[in-house]
Amino acid sequence: MTVMVPSTTPALITPGRQALDSALHQLAQAADHLGLDDGLRTMLATPRRSLTVSVPVRREDGRMDVVQGFRVQHNVSRGPAKGGIRFHPSTDIHEVTALAMWMTWKCALVGIPYGGAKGGVAVDPGALTILELERLTRRYVNEILPLIGPEKDIPAPDVGTDEQTMAWIMDTYSVNTGYSVPGVVTGKPMTLGGSLGRAGATSRGVQIAALAALGRSPEGVTVAVQGFGKVGALAAQYLADAGCKVVAVSDVTGAVHAAGGLDVAGVRAWVAESGGVRGYRHADALTHEELFELDVDVLVPAALEGVITAENAPRVRARLIVEGANGPTTPGADEILTANGTTVVPDILANAGGVIVSYLEWVQNMQAYSWSASEVELKLRDLMEGAYAEVRALAAGRGLTLRQAAHAIGVGRVAEAHQMRGLYP
Ligand code: NAD
């Protein structure tokens, strides 16, 4: 039996711990702005439920590995908990807690009746065969089974998971329940009750937020995208479709750049064929760090947390940053970007398209009904544009950054729900 190294080493400041520190810093700023009392602050800073599980996985060669899994429900005052599941080797309880907290504010900000949750397994899915991945997913779901359910906590895809993962989760939950429960997860395949428009929803939301923040014609606007996965690749595609010139993209394999603009569909085809952007023929290679320093109009971080820091922020030349990823910008970087006149459309606003269409998928499942692609897109656009306008107006009226305004709205709504419900007992 092999026990994989636990992802949390107490003496180490992990990237997950840094993400949680960022989330707590943003919450403290919002709480100051709203004048919340100490008790409420502590409540909002503390997850409602956190579960750490050991997930044994039988490997193809007969060995057994044991990996750590997590599910955190940060807050359920406005409705069932909602949030993705991440498979990544460096995920830990701190990262999952930060991501759950951001989900709480995001759902409140865009006005959907959910609390925030997140899940994760500290594993590299690329190192497992499809059968190992299925066994791992089903065992992890079995371990977190008491927490999840369509009225309780509804997972969705995140880094390293996809609609196949959601299908296994739906099946595992349904087998344990004794009947099919499509509403237990969102981001499912269409054949199992997925929603039209869900696969591209986060990216569509990034495009809507970017175009709203640009405030001018997208024709010829230059864009760089860090992370060419589910969110980043389609965000690049939709921005290119709108007339922007996507000049650089990256993923874990490398970064590529073409000053005249990349053929995004061509890069996507290359990634499907080769497994990564590296080696794409019609572009030059770039380092990961150089992508952040390009002289572009728009930078879309769409990979992991903590990539724009106080160290590299002074070299960021983009006029607008639209956060496809959760938590890509540290508080130290935020201050530098604000001082340099860079506008940041924060994660809880910019990438909310995913949870909005997840909510629409869940509503369809609960009603055993389905909407057309155009109905879904219209509702998504309405909620995204409404939330953007609200954040913009508060920021302008109070002299806040878009992140401060977005957090003030999201945290304020959750605080109000707590106050209205009162404290039991
Ligand atoms: P994904 O696993 O599909 O893609 C992640 C991409 O990032 C991959 O292309 C990977 O190669 C790349 N990457 C990883 N490390 C990198 C590095 N150091 N430099 C450059 N690229 C790197 O994940 P996703 O679902 O696209 O999620 C991306 C981000 O968007 C995450 O922060 C996630 O929490 C957030 N998000 C996702 C959704 C969703 O619906 N999937 C919704 C809201 C927010």
Q: Report the bound ligands by name, code or SMILES.
A: nicotinamide-adenine-dinucleotide
Termini Cα gap: 46 Å
Helix content: 40-55%
Work out the helix count: 14
SSE series: EHHEEEHEHEHHEHEEHEHEEHEHHHH
SS content category:
alpha/beta
- SS elements, strand count: 13
Largest sheet, strands/sense/barrel = 7 strands, mixed
Shape: globular
Low-pLDDT stretches: none
Average residue pLDDT: 96
Rg result:
20 Å
Strand content: 15-25%
Description of the molecule:
- The protein has 425 residues and is an alpha/beta fold.
- It contains 14 helices and 13 strands.
- It has helices at 15-34, 38-45, 93-109, 130-144, 163-177, 201-214, 230-241, 264-274, 288-292, 331-339, 347-350, 353-367, 373-398, 402-421, and strands at residues 2-3, 49-58, 64-75, 81-87, 115-121, 153-157, 222-226, 245-251, 254-257, 284-286, 298-301, 320-322, 343-345.
- Helix 1 (15-34) packs parallel to helix 3 (93-109) and helix 4 (130-144) crosses helix 5 (163-177).
- The longest helix has 26 residues, at 373-398.
- The N and C termini lie far apart (46 Å).
- The mean pLDDT is 96.
- Nicotinamide-adenine-dinucleotide (NAD) binds at residues 157-160, 202, 226-232, 250-252, 288, 302-304, 324-326, 351, 354.
